[in-house]
Amino acid sequence: MDDLVTARLTLHPMSRSEAERVVAGEPDSGARWAPGYPAEGDVAGARRFLSVCASTGDPQPFGAYEIRRREDGRAIGGLGFHGPPDHNGSVTIGYGLIPAAHGKGYASEALRMLLALARAHGITRVQGDTDHDNIASQHVMTAVGMQLVAEDERLKYYESTWSDAAAITDPSS
Hints:
single chain, alpha+beta, Aminopeptidase, eight-stranded mixed sheet, 4 helices, 8 strands, 27% strand, globular
């Protein structure tokens, strides 16, 4: 699968070997990791991706992506799907950035592209959640059009739904 490109980012679909390196915290000679990458969430996402690969095969395009800045090619975080769509066409997403990349709009830009990819592949619902105290993540999901649909004592739950599987023509809007 090809990289997904936004105005400032490249979303690189991870291979199994790349995910294994993220889990081990050991880049290969060609990897360009920004200081602080991979963070704990990146490692957890890579582990989840490897688990899905082991149980059902490579789920791409519904796998893990490394978020890279286009200006220097450095990995600054990750995002992706928790696995392939369920029988209702629903997926769950997660994302995260290294602290140095916070507050620059990168998460919203990356998530918009991921939502566009999901919709273009016939997904009818994308779900995500965040802790009550993670205001930044709540802002990101709201900024990309996800709606708060529920909350419990620990988490707030967001989703985007589409009644059709039409592709978004401009995912950066």
